[in-house]
Amino acid sequence: MGGGAIVLVPEISLTPQTVERFRARVSAVSPSEKVAVLHSNLSDGERHDEWHAIREGRARIVIGARSAVFAPVRDLRLIVVDEEHEHSYKQEESPRYHARDVAVMRGKLEGCVVVLGSATPSLESYRNAQLGRYQLLELTRRATEFCLPIVRVVDMRMQSRAKRSGGGIISQPLREAILSRLEKREQTILFLNRRGYATSLICERCGRVEECPNCSVALTFHRAADQLLCHICGHAAKTPAQCLNPECGNPAIRFSGLGTERVEEVLGLAFPKAVVRRMDSDTLRRKNEFREILAAFRVGKIDILLGTQMIAKGLDFPNVTLVGIINSDLGLHLPDFRAGERTFQLLTQVAGRAGRGDVEGEVVVQSFTPFHPAIQFARRHDFQGFYEQEIEFRRQLEYPPFARIALVTLKGRNEEKVRFCADKVAHELAKRVGELPVRLSGPAPAPLTRAETFYRFQIMLRTPHMTKLTAKLARFEEEFPLPEGVDLAMDVDPVNLQ
User: N or C, which end of the chain has less CB nearby within 10 Å?
Assistant: First the structure.
């Protein structure tokens, strides 16, 4: 049609394989056609060259992460948002835009088609399709015609006391499934969305947990570096030889919880002949290391690939016949109304990496809450069933998609000052939005009460009429005087309530 297209992917790590596929397909039709790439990992020179190629019309296809939605494509005819449900499309810092929503609005302004693609759509997008705002197109089978994998849920409550390999980290069913794949020369992907060796360091005598001095979280033990690290602010401390409580000093401190580093160690002991490779932000130091590991995995040089969320989506390896989810409960009990939805989406996406070739796939899900609806619906690949039970919960509590949320966060280094200011802001907001259908909750300490030395308090406003509310919020932000040392941020349609 002579126009241009933008293709958005949720992670920078997914751009190389997406670009490779597009270039192979496009070059077969038009060898001179250029595919441009835009994301934050490009150097200034690379970004300059790509931007001008797009601007001048030398590149009509743009592939990239969320910021690529602003690419200066001439005669834009199509925007594709792959895995539209992914929360990485939302920028958490100002300007707090959601690339999916920007894509929909840009499509409306430029009169182009917008395709939102996902096996597990966000409840907001699926609701829009049900109401006729979007056209719903359903794929009822895999493009390759292969069957969806069999999903087995292992109740880890029954496994935890048993003397299994890895001290209960790898259940007997998962261990047997991995051994079977190794014997058949098939490959395995293991998923755990937590890096490091152990999630906390605890004293068994006094109960002290080593916490970050800047954030209200426990420090994570990284064995390779022999350090305790904070995954929020980056604080690092030497691993102590004894309890740091001056009244205790107990040398019998122990590590609790597990991360990918510990699982890698367990795999090495349980399967000494297997080639195991770990992929997380701790192991990927060089620019092209992600691509190199996936290339080695593709040609069979790696038997077991262990990783965090970066391996959970978009990967297509026909020889992967087993996917193991080490702890499916990690995000299930967070203080966030989307916790169940995120768990269902993640389990379904990870499970989709198995059985993409001629051999039927299998997924083993380890869980301490195996009968939770998110896990059971994911086990059956039943998005419709999950949607119907989840949407009723949202309807009763007036959460999205039945209302929209504006989250007001105040932060400062003096806890009492921030608390007092949050009370004043909530009182003033209640007066200003009184005539609107708004439910105001708070102020309350944020789930992550302290981050990077700042104390944080939140006020949540829910309304079916966000346009009217944002007008009042914008005016309030201009007029309300904040004391020195207290900052205020407003996020409309937040995806992270932490």
Answer: N
pLDDT score recorded for residue 145: 66
Contacts of 37 (CB under 8 A, 6+ apart): 15, 19, 50, 62, 63, 64
The per-residue pLDDT for range 258-300, each reduced to its tens digit, is 899 999 999 999 999 999 998 887 777 666 777 788 888 888 8
pLDDT of the residue at 315: 73
CATH superfamily, region 150-192+265-394: P-loop containing nucleotide triphosphate hydrolases (3.40.50.300)
Task: Name the pTM for this structure.
Answer: 0.87
Domain boundaries, the chain: 4-117, 150-192+265-394, 198-257, 404-492
Residues 442-454: pLDDT tens digits?
899 999 999 999 9
CATH of 4-117, one of 1.20.1440.230, 3.40.50.300, 3.90.440.10, 3.40.1080.10: 3.40.50.300
Q: Which residues of 20-44 are buried (b: 16+ CB within 10 A; e: fewer)?
A: eebeeebeeeeeeebbbbbbeebee
Same fold, 4-117 and 404-492: no
Question: Could you tell me which CATH number the domain at 404-492 has?
Answer: 3.30.70.600
